[in-house]
């Protein structure tokens, strides 16, 4: 990133290749949009903003953390500007993003797809800061400190966001199912 800040396009190209999928996937999940093309377009916007801001980059946080912070801001702006309605999404071919084994029975696959849609809808209904915290923690694998850097907040605030988000997801999904699914194994709500 420091080399890119000095105008090294090749270094920036390596950075883009290294983080493009993570940025696009985060945008896709954050916005809960029906097509991955929009998420890819927003990822391009993220990298354009990162290129423009590269000279001012200071290595206080990891590069991915910095990029996800830009992504969060661009997604919030996109959502605000387009007044995008929250919706559950499937891939363009109508299947879930999870690869399903041929040995799974059709009933199991249908139930898993239905549960995945329910989880996506529940995540999409969370307030933006809680949604971002859940996605950053459970889909991007960031630690609390990195999430705090991305969201420009404190670690205790992240803990609170995650607690409230998990509690809401637990309540929402429990209301839909008679048995509560284990959405995030590490975070059981008592």
General description of the model:
With 190 residues, the protein is an all-alpha fold. Helix 3 packs across helix 4 and helix 7 packs across helix 8. The N and C termini lie far apart (43 Å).
Write the layout of secondary structure elements.
Elements: H1 2-5, H2 9-31, H3 36-53, H4 63-82, H5 106-124, H6 128-138, H7 144-151, H8 155-176
Helix pairs in contact: 2-3, 2-4, 3-4, 4-7, 5-8, 6-8, 7-8
What does this entry show, briefly?
The protein is an all-alpha fold and 190 residues long. Helix content is 66%, strand content 0%.
How many structural domains can be distinguished in the coordinates?
2
Class by SSE composition = mainly alpha
Q: Write out the CATH superfamily name of the largest domain.
A: RNA polymerase sigma factor, region 2, helix turn helix motif
Determine the fraction of residues in helical runs and give it as a percent range: 55-70%
Distance between the termini: 43 Å
What's the overall geometry?
Answer: globular
CATH architecture of the largest domain: Orthogonal Bundle
Write down the Rg: 18 Å
Strand content: under 5%
Which stretches are poorly predicted, pLDDT < 50 over at least 5 residues?
84-104
CATH topology descriptor of the largest domain: Rna Polymerase Sigma Factor, Chain: A
Tally of separate helices: 8
């Amino acid at each position: 990133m420091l080399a890119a800040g000095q105008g090294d396009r090749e270094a920036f190209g390596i950075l883009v290749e290294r983080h493009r999928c993570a940025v696009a996937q985060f945008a896709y999940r954050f916005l809960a949009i029906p097509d991955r093309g929009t998420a890819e377009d927003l990822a391009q916007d993220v990298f354009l903003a990162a290129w423009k801001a590269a000279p001012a980059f200071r290595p206080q946080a990891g590069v991915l953390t910095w990029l996800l912070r830009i992504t969060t801001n661009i997604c919030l702006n996109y959502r605000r500007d387009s007044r995008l309605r929250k919706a559950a999404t499937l891939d363009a071919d109508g299947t879930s993003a999870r690869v399903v084994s041929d040995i799974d029975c059709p009933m199991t696959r249908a139930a898993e797809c239905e549960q995945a849609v329910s989880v996506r809808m529940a995540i999409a209904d969370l307030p933006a800061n809680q949604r971002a915290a859940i996605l950053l923690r459970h889909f991007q694998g960031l630690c609390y400190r990195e999430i705090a850097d991305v969201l420009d907040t404190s670690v205790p605030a992240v803990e609170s966001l995650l607690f409230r988000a998990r509690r809401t997801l637990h309540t929402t999904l429990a209301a839909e199912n008679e048995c509560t699914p284990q959405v995030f194994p590490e975070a059981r709500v008592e």
